[in-house]
Description:
2 domains, 5-stranded parallel sheet, RfaF, 6-stranded parallel sheet, 13 helices, Rossmann fold, alpha/beta
Amino acid sequence: MLPALQSVDSLAVRCPNWVGDIVMATPVFECLRSNFPTATITALVRPYARGILEDAPWFDHIVDCQDKDWQGLKTIRQEFARLKPQFGLLLTNTTHSFLTFKFAALPRTYGYRRNLRKFLLTGGPNPIMEEGEIKPIPMQDYYLNLCRYLDLEIPTSPKPTLYISDTLASQGANRLKNYGIEAGDTVIGLNPGASFGSSKCWPTEYFAELAEQLQDRFGGKLLLLVGPGEEAIADRIIQASNAEIINTAKDRIDLAHLKPLIKRCNLLITNDTGPRHYAVAFDVPHIVLMGPTNAIYTANNLQMATVLQRQLPCVPCHKKTCPLGHHACMNEITPAMVIEAANNYLGHR
């Protein structure tokens, strides 16, 4: 541990913004709690994502990160004035996130030396460069390198972890029962949305066809996992498919209540989005339909995963919508390919 941190009894962590990145950062949270066992650790996280973390043992306090207006910044400063963190760790890359900690009067802030903030941080590693660009590496490693810079003891086998309280587990069990899912049922989760943009979304007609083939081949219950704003996607799948599909859209499942649903799945078939990382955390077999993103960023902890991605000249583009108009990276992943992958997990049932 850096000498400057050895007497710390309160610290703050600025969590990532994307759901999947928060889950991939959980080994960092574990590392901080292990190295600062008696310290007060505060998470600063977007309000929509606090349900991911609320049941975990890492944090003593969770503060909503609403730092885009004056009132939100004042609230953060008031909370930190009460909690008195002696240093902050930024898992985000923006200068704005540094300025939020600065406004909240944190005496020391560590993070990657990127953008303008590289001149302002107390310390932090430089990102690994390759041919003048930041080299893509798995995000779990990217985050843990911050802990290495702080000279902390790193978990020997780091892996994303999520927690479910007894209350949340009971609510999840009741919801599953209301869906008609019994203890011995095979449950296949379908996650057709992606908050990033349409470029990450597998065609709804493919999901509709896949649902029919899954039910014909494996039986069981099909659980359609629907996030806020994805109701229209779910409707198109339901209307186009003859399969019996449990549509969760009406329940408006938030990120906390999503945890027990994914944990119950025997298999999750998902776009490359947040829920795939829940499956990693809960050791649920999953098939990832990956399109425009670089698979290196999520290349850890794939023991329970099958990643289907087409090797095309335009991949990865990291665009929210297909700039070429053909969306070949997703359209060329066929339902037959997914069924073949599913058979590896469910064929013995």
